UniProtKB/TrEMBL annotation:
Belongs to the TonB-dependent receptor family. One of its GO terms (cellular component) is cell outer membrane. InterPro entries: Beta-barrel_TonB, Beta-barrel_TonB_sf, CarboxyPept-like_regulatory, Plug_dom, Plug_dom_sf, Secretin/TonB_short_N, TonB-dep_OMP_SusC/RagA, TonB-dep_OMP_SusC/RagA_CS. Its main location: membrane. It comes from Phocaeicola vulgatus dnLKV7. Residues 55-105 form the Secretin/TonB short N-terminal domain. This is SusC/RagA family TonB-linked outer membrane protein. It holds the Pfam family Plug. One of its GO terms (biological process) is iron ion transport. Keywords: Cell outer membrane, Ion transport, Iron, Iron transport, Membrane, TonB box, Transmembrane, Transmembrane beta strand, Transport.
Amino acid sequence: MKGNQLMRKPKLLRALLILLFVAAPIQWTRAQIVLSTPKTTLGAVIKNIKSQSNYQFFYDDKLAEMPVNAIDVKNGSLQSVLDAALQGKGITYKIEDNIVYLSASGEPQTPQQTGQEHTVTGTVVDATGEALIGVNVQVKGNPTAGTITDFEGNYSLSVPGNGEIVFSYIGYRSETLKPDGKDVLNVTMQEDTQQIGEVVVTALGIKREKKMLGYAVQELKSDELNKTGDPSVTSALQGKVAGLQMNTSATGLGGSTKITIRGNSSLTDNNQPLWIVDGVPFSDNTTSDASRYGGVDRGSASMDINPDDIESISVLKGPNAAALYGSRAGNGVILITTKKGSKKDGFGIRYSGNFTWTAIGETLDMQRRYGQGHIDTKDAKTAVYDKTDSGSWGPVLDGSMKEAWNGETYAYSNYGDKLKDYFDTGFSHTHNVSISNGTEKSHFRTSFGYSDNDGVFPTESLSRVNADLNAGTELNKWVSMDGKISLSRTKADNRPLYGDYGAISQLMRIPNNVRLDDLKQYSDETHAHVNWTGPTASIRNPYYVLHQRQNSDERWRAFGYYSMKINFTDWLHLSAKYAFDYYRTRVQSTNAGDGINGEANTSMITNDSMDRSEENFFESNAEVILMGDRQLTDNFRLGFNVGGNFMYQRSETLGVGVGNMVDKGNWMLNAANLLRTGSEDGYKRAMNSVFGSVQMAWKEYLSLDLTARNDWSSTLPSGNNSFFYPSANLSFVVSDFLRSIDKPLPSWVTFAKARLSAAQVGKDTSPYQLYNTYSFKFDNGVLTPTKDNVKMNDQLKPEIATSYEAGLDMKFLNNRLGFDFTYYYSKTKNQIMKVPAAAPWSGGQWVNAGMVTNQGVELMLYSTLVETKDFAFDLNVNMAHNVSKVKELAPEENVNYMFFNGDGNFPVKVGTRAGHKLGEIYATSLYKRNENGDIIVNENGLPMTVTNESEYVNKPIGNIQPKLTMSVSPTFTYKGITLSALFDMKFGGDIFSYSEMLATGNGLAKRTLNRGEENNYMMVFPGVTESGEVNTKQVSASEYYGALQAEDFIYDASFIKLKELSIGYSFPSSMLKKTPVNSLNVSFVARNLCYLMKHTPGTSPEGGYDTTMFSQAIDYASLPFTRTFGISINLGF
C-alpha cells in the first residue's frame, strides 16, 4: 500500500520527531562481514555470518546442505555476502530488521516437472485477514521450487499437475495444500504460539528466546487479551495466567482489582505486582473510601490503559524473573508492550469497535411465599401482617387486599425480584482508531480511543478517552531515538455506594409485598426522605441512595518516555531513558440530606453536605544502561548489561468537606454555611539503584544468567536503607544437547528443557514510618493538632524475599502437545508489620517480625488435538496450587495471631495464626458445644454462644485459600470462522455470606421458607440442654433464624465459570479486493455468561465487599452477578 506524502519525506519526518522529543532505538544490524571461503554449503555460510553479527536466519532445514559459490568479501555488507554466495543458486532472501528469510526461488526446476506445470497464484493472510509478508511457498518435495509472498501477501508459483504446495512462516503452523487444477489458491494461516523459537519480553524490555530462560514467564498476545473486548486490562487477564489471582470488588463499572502472583507474601497488604508499560513504571493505585458502612470504590489506576493499544503482556512471576526491577518487583511484574509502527507493515489505518449489553444474572436466593409482618407468639400464635414492620415474617402472600405502607390498598402479593428489577440493562461502546507508518529510518503509530459505559446501576456511567503517540527515528548509523506520550481521561459518575448504606443492602430488606415502583418517589415536597419503613436512619429508600447521594471522579493522566541509543559497535550500545507517570484525580460526593431529624454531624450527615478532594501523583525514572551481546566463538555467546536508575515519587492530596448548603442542588464550596473538615497530606520518596546482569549461552542449549541489584531507599533509616540482592537462572535444553551428540530423543519428543533459578529481593516500606509527627485536622471550624497513635520505628529494615524455582518444559509430536511445569518455594522475612504497644500508642507500633512462605506448583498444558486442511481444535489449560503459610509472627512481642479486616464489625474476622495458613476465617460468636460437638441450648430454647477472642481464634470456621485454580481455553477454527471460550475455575477455599445472614434475619432468605407454618410458625433449635437432654423448647421462626451463627453461612467458594465466549469470522481478502478495506473481522462476544458449578446461595463466590487483604472472604451487599453480550468489529485499511 502506498504511503502518504509525509512518509515520502523522511527528512521532514525525522525533524518533526526530534522537535517533539518522541523517538528511540530501532535495532538495525549493520555489521561489516569478513568472509573468505571456497565452495561450501549454505549452512556453513550462515554459521559464519551469525558469529560476526546479530542476524538471525529463518529457512527450510533442507536448504542448509545446498552448495553455494566461493566467497571472498572483506568488510562487506550482508547483502554483498549473500549476493556472492547465492548467485545462480535459485535461492532468494529478504532482510527484515535483523532477521533474514531464505527460500528457494523456483529455479532451476527438475526436468520431470517441466511441461506438466501450471501457475498457481493467491494471497496468504492470518486469522484476522491481515496479509502475511515473506511466507515461504514451496512445491512439496522440491526445495528448489519456491517463492515468498510480497508486501500484499500475494504469491505466484509454477506447480506440477499433481504437486502440493507447502506454506511455512515463522510463528505460524505450516499448511500443505493441493491445488487440484485450481489457478487461484488463497490461504489463511494460523498462529503457532508454541514454537520452540518463541521470543518473549523479559525484564528491562529485553526480548529473549523463551527456551533460553531459567525461570517461568507467561506471555499473552493482543488477540488473546482482547477476544471479548473487555475494557479493563486487569479483568481481561483473569483466568489466562497460571498462578495469578484477582481480588475484585463487585461494585459495578470500573471496580478496583488487586492482583497477586503466587500468593500473598506480605502481612501489610503490599502484595501487588509492579506494572511496567513500555519500560515506564505505571502506578496501579486504588482510590477508595469504601468500608462496610458506605463509601465508594473508584477503581484501579490500571483502568487508564487502553487494551487495544497493547501488543503483548508478559507476566514475570516473582523475584526470579523480576530481580532486575528491584524492590518494587518483589511480587512480580506485569510487563506491557504497546503496539508500534514498523517499516514492515507500511502505512496502515485500523479501527476496532465493541458494542456490548450487560444485564443482571443471578441474585441472592430469596423466598417469595411470605410477606411483611411478624410472628405473634402470645395471642394469635400465627404470622401477622403489619405494614410498619421491617421484617418479612408475615403470613402467606395470598393476593388479598391490604393497606400498604403508603396508605394505598392493593393485593398482598409478591411484586418481583427487587435485586433484579431495580437495575437497568447496561450498554457500552468502545471505539479505537490507529494510524501507523514506517520507513527505513523512522516509524510512528498514533491511536485514539473512546469508551462510554452505562452500568446496570441507574445513573451510573464510566467513560475513558485515550490518545497515544510513539515514534522513533534513526539519526545516523550510530544514534537513534525513540519516544512515547500517552494521555487519558477517565471519568465516572454515581458509582454505587458500599455496604450498609448502599442500594443493594437496602434492596435486600424490602418485603415481597412492597412494590418497588412506589419507592421511586423517594422524597416529599419538603425534601424529606420517604421510605416503606417510615423515617428511620437504619433502612433507606434505595432510590434515595441513588439520587440524593451522588458522586463523581475524574482522573487525567499522562505518561511516557524519551530515550536515546548510541551504537558503539554492532554488539555494544548505550541507552539512556527518562520516563514519567503523572495523574491528577478529582473526587466529589454530595448528600442532599434525609430530612429525618434535621441535625447536622450525625453519623449519617442528615443535612446537605459535600466533600471534595484532589490528588496529584508524579513519578519519574532516569535510567542509563550499557548493553552488549556477542558470539565470542562458534559455541559460546555472551551478553551483559549494567546500569543505574534514579526514581523520584511525589503525592499531594487536598480535601475539604462542607455542609448546610444555602441553595439546594448548588454544589459549590462558596454555597455552604459550614466548613466541616479540611485536610492536606502528601509524601515524597526516592530510590537510587545500580544493577547488572550477565547472560552466557553454550551451543544454544545451555544458558546461565546472573543478575545483581542494589537499592538505596529514602523510606528506611540510613543504616538499613541499602539492600543488595542477586539471582541466578539456569536453562538446559536437553533435546538440543542430545541431538548435538547424535543421541536424540524419540521422534515424538520435539523439545525438552529443564530450568533452575534462585533469587533474593528486598522490599522497603511506605514513607514516614520512622518518626512520629503531628498532623493537623480541621473539624467543625476548629483546627486541632493530632499526634500519631502509632509508634514509629527508626530502626526498620527491608523485608527480604528469597525464592527458588525449578521447571520442566516439554513438547511432543512436532509441537502438537506440550506442557510447562514449575515448582517454587519462597519465604519473606523481616515483615514490616504493626503489633500492639503500650500506652499511649493505641494504634500499635511498627516492627520487623514475622515470616511468610509460599509453596506451589504451576502447570500449563497446550495442545492441537485436531488439525486438518480446514479445521483445527486447540486446547490450552492453566493450573496452579499455592499454599501461603505464616511460619511466625512476632513471638518476642507476644503476638501469635493477627486480623486483617478490622473496621467492618462483621460477625467474622479474617486473619492468621503463627504456624498456620494465611486467610483463616474466625467467627466472633460461635455455638457453645459439649464434648460431643452438640450445640448447647439455654432455658429459652436458643443456642448459647462463645464470644471470647482467645477461644474463637483457635477454632477457625474456614480459610479463603483455594486448593487449585484452573482455566481451560478451547479454540475451534474452521476456515475463516473461529470459536473460542474460556472456563475459569477455582476449587477449595471458603466464603462467608453476610448478605444471606442479614436476609435470613429479616425473613427473606430462601432458607427461611422452612418456618414451621404447619406448627403455628414455631420451631425447635437442634441441640441439648446444659444438663445434656435433647432440646424440645419451641421458639418462633424469627427467633430461630435470628439465632443462627456465622458458621451457618460459610460456603465452599469453588466454582466453574464460563468467563468468555467469542465466535468470529474473518472475511477473505478476495471478498474485499474491490473495497478500501484490507481486513475485516466480525465477532459475537460474551463475558461472564454463567456459573456451571458453585455452592453459594445465588451470590457470586468471587465477590468481596472491597479489595482490602482477604476481603474476598466476605460477601456483603455485592453487585449481583452480571452477564455481558455484544459484537466486536475490526477493520484494516
